[in-house]
Amino acid sequence: MSDPSPVAPSVSAVSPGRASGRIPDLNWQDAHRASIQMRYSDIDTNHHVNNGRYGEYLENARIMLMRDVGLWARGERTVLARMELDYVQEIRAGQDLIVESLIERLGRTSWTVVARILADGVPCAFSRAVLVRVNPQHQPEPLPEWAREALGTLLVRP
């Protein structure tokens, strides 16, 4: 007797070199780029990057973005309020990793970063993260104009 349950498509069903429909076609050419160093401990027994490491890669890229636009040097504090992550294609041991990030939205106290992880130039994951600016007591604070200007250089454009 055959099993009537649907079979989920395998990760390899994504065409190499093409972004999946789960990764929006944005102005990635304008994105902040962060090179990520893969570590041996990132690899699991299937010889691909463990799914838990993707969040670390994205976190490192957000910190580099904050550093590169000047928020880090000014002592800005942010907390991660929400993160969505779509796994599109596996990342294999030894691939070169780049995270490209754009600012999707600037709110009153928060900003939304969309990012994609590329392995050897192939988009493998898409993320949306909401960061909230907080004061030393971890209470939300409005984004100052200088931060809006710094982040505005990376805005998603039509």
From TrEMBL:
Enzyme class: hydrolase
Coiled coil: none
EC number(s) from the headed UniProt entry: 3.1.2.-
Entry superkingdom: Bacteria
Keyword tags: Hydrolase
Biased composition (Low complexity): 1-16
InterPro entries the UniProt entry points to: 4-hydroxybenzoyl-CoA_TE, HotDog_dom_sf
GO molecular function terms attached to this record: hydrolase activity
Region of interest called Disordered, as start-end residue ranges on this chain: 1-23
Keyword Hydrolase: yes
Protein name (Swiss-Prot/TrEMBL): Acyl-CoA thioesterase
Species: Deinococcus navajonensis
